[in-house]
Amino acid sequence: MTDAATTDAAPPANGPLTTADGRPLKSALARAERMRRVKAMLLVLPLLLFIGITFLSPIALMLFRSVDNPIVADNMPRTIAALEAWDDHGELPDEAAFAALTADLAEARRNRTIGRLATRLNYETGGLRSTVTRTGRRAQRLKAPFKEALIGLDGDWANPETWATIKRLGKRITGVNYLAAVDRRYDVDGNVVPQPEVRRIYIGNFIQTLWMSVIVTIACLALGFPVAYLLSILPLRYSNVLMILVLLPFWTSLLVRTTSWIVLLQTEGIINDILVWSGIISDDGRIQLIFNAEGTVIAMTHILLPFMILPLYSVMKTIPPIYMRAAASLGASRHYAFRRVYLPNTLPGIGAGCLLVFILAIGYYITPALVGGQDGMMISNFIAYHMQRSLNWGLAAALGAILLFGVLILYWVYSKLVGIERLKLG
Amino acid sequence: MIGRNDPLVRFREVQKTYDGESLVVKDLNLDIAPGEFLTLLGPSGSGKTTCLMMLAGFETVTYGTIYLGGGPINNLPPHKRGIGMVFQNYALFPHMTVGENLSFPLEARGAGKADVREKIGRALEAVQLGGYERRRPGQLSGGQQQRVALARALVFEPALVLMDEPLGALDKQLREHMQFEIKRIHESLGVTVVYVTHDQGEALTLSDRIAVLNNGVIQQIDAPADLYEKPKNAFVAQFIGENNRLRGHVRHMNGTSCRVELDNGQGEMQALAVNVSGSGAPTTLSLRPERVVIDPPPGSLPNRFEARVEELTYLGDHIRTRVNVCGTDQFIVKIPNAHGHASLKEGSTVTVGWEIDDCRALDT
């Protein structure tokens, strides 16, 4: 170790760097850092577990449920097997399929699962619920030939479409929920066709949801930008008071705020009273401001406003006032300096605020439910409806998944246009 | 057009208050000639930056008038004054490239495309950053950013450029290099510069004239050499360069010189009467450490005293010596590190002396 000691700073010409005792430098570094990394890992482990259990697994379950279709396959195994060879070209299946159906329905009735089966089939083709339950009641006593017996019992069994529906729903993994969520269905030949006019609701509602969210986002930006600007330039003691006013809504129950909008906006409410009193509108010309899309937009703008103001404020706070001075000293009028210097520097805040408000808005549930009325409904109201009332969880999951992918696409577009690393939420 | 002798900038009786209770700038009168490099120098809170901001138009003038090129500009908004400005933290626009930063003042004035390109090229050449148009400010070093800021303030060819501690954020070596750069640009373009700093070295290096401010009042305005060698009052003497202070009372006036008795009763010396009212007046004697002579030949100097060496500090080019003389132990003597310099020992006693002209009797 005579020459080596004098030239130890230079790396050896061949091979990677090593420590004094000849171990590779990389593994020595990893070993030295390992303890610290394990400790850091242990600290975040609870949060990771929490997120995994309460956030990721429900989403995964929901995505699974949107394509999962176990009811028909579980309750009609014999029928599905018998229909394997049958191809639905306007003809009825053979006697074996009818016999299998009779046996399946009889067993489903014994197992008390026939109700769910009937409901599932009914989602697809209206009227099948009663057909299935009635047949199930009699299935025990039916005698061969089953084809005639079943057709005699209910005309639906003579319709090849009924059998086609059963065969289609017999698949465990299915896209029918997604089709239903975009107002499509399979016809008797297995082609994707639009739903009948009266049953097309979701596409229109998706468009309405997006449209209302866009309006809410624009309204929030228009109202929030000046407030955020004021917050960022006021001296601390004033800006603190203003900040409390901005945050006040967060400390009030969402329900209280929403219902107070009802008090304000209803036909006999304060706004209409003032307008009538001041003579702008006549008493019988009172404006419908609530229980429609307008009411939803007004109430949601109010509720989501802080989510716009806070990211904007946090970005504006970091823009040195000296930029505007520099611009002025370089000959820019206030307007020109604002447009060319200030506004571009607030873009990360505008992007973050709009993204936040928009994403919150398209998934908003409680406000549209309370003040939306019929035409102020948003897609989340339908999801709730299918979760709670119709119990068509598959469809609810499909609607939710479409919403989720919509948001992910939005993120992707944002990161392409602005860069996600420039997102500043506070 | 204004003549060579008409000032470009004129402060007349300018006063400024922020709170209505105390004046930050008190009755300021100042003329700045075209092509001059004037530095406002002072400690923080002296009002130097306020003066600059009033000139730039970012602060209102409470009372008095500022003239630019002959006309009053009190009510002219900043963007119409046509004054270039360099800020301490550069204030380059981070979302624009260097080229866009430089074209900003030209576009704000509605200049044509070809014209813009040519001027940007020339401005970047002037600060030796040719070919940097496409870089972003964040990709440049501090010194390069400051050069871009300088180019941006010059690119629209203003008659007057203000600089607010432009080198404050740079390290020492870069700062010295940039001082040289600024001086070179000033001389080659002939632009008028008003420069604000609290760094006296910077002020002495760069300026044609320096205005020393304290408490909102100009204490002295002079060329750097005069300011250093002939301070008119105790504040300037103390603020510019190192200075030994001795307090005393004038005993006897003798034309331009006077006899001063120290207040601690430990000595009497001859001094140049600069800023004393007459016999019996209190005074502060100011004496530069490099003007003190060690072991002068007997009879050669009018002021001679015994001193005890307290502390020696080796500083390379000179040896800083703290001695106890005339009852004060904070008396500094600078001994140049030349061949055959006096080699002193701590605790030894020596004789020190100085000329009458080097010992200035100032106000208190």
Topology:
The complex is a heterodimer of chains A (426) and B (364).
Chain A: H1 3-6, H2 25-67, H3 70-75, H4 77-83, H5 95-110, H6 114-124, H7 128-138, H8 146-153, H9 160-169, H10 176-181, E1 184-186, E2 192-194, H11 202-233, H12 236-251, H13 254-265, H14 270-277, H15 293-317, H16 322-329, H17 334-362, H18 366-371, H19 379-388, H20 393-417
Antiparallel strand pairs in A: 1-2
Chain B: E1 9-17, E2 23-32, E3 37-41, H1 48-56, E4 63-68, E5 71-72, E6 83-86, H2 98-108, H3 113-126, H4 142-154, E7 160-164, H5 172-189, E8 192-197, H6 200-206, E9 209-214, E10 217-222, H7 224-229, H8 234-239, E11 244-254, E12 257-262, E13 268-273, E14 282-287, E15 293-294, E16 303-314, E17 318-325, E18 328-336, E19 349-354, E20 359-362
Parallel strand pairs in B: 3-8, 3-9, 6-7, 7-8, 13-20
Antiparallel strand pairs in B: 1-2, 1-4, 4-5, 9-10, 11-12, 11-14, 12-13, 14-20, 15-19, 16-17, 16-19, 17-18
Please explain how this structure is put together:
The complex is a heterodimer of chains A (426) and B (364). With 426 residues, chain A is mostly helical. Chain A has 20 helices and two strands. Residues 1-10 of chain A have low confidence and may be disordered. By secondary structure, chain B is of the alpha+beta class. Chain B folds into two domains: 9-234, 3-Layer(aba) Sandwich (Rossmann fold); 242-362, OB fold (Dihydrolipoamide Acetyltransferase, E2P). Helix content of chain B is 23%, strand content 35%. In chain B, strands 6-7-8-3-9-10 form a six-stranded mixed β-sheet, sandwiched between helices. A five-stranded mixed β-barrel of chain B has the order 11-12-13-20-14. Chain B has a five-stranded antiparallel β-sheet with strand order 15-19-16-17-18, with no helix packed on it. In chain B, helix 2 (98-108) packs across helix 3 (113-126). Chain B starts with 8 loop residues before the first strand and ends with a strand. The interface between A and B is medium-sized, with 20 and 25 residues.
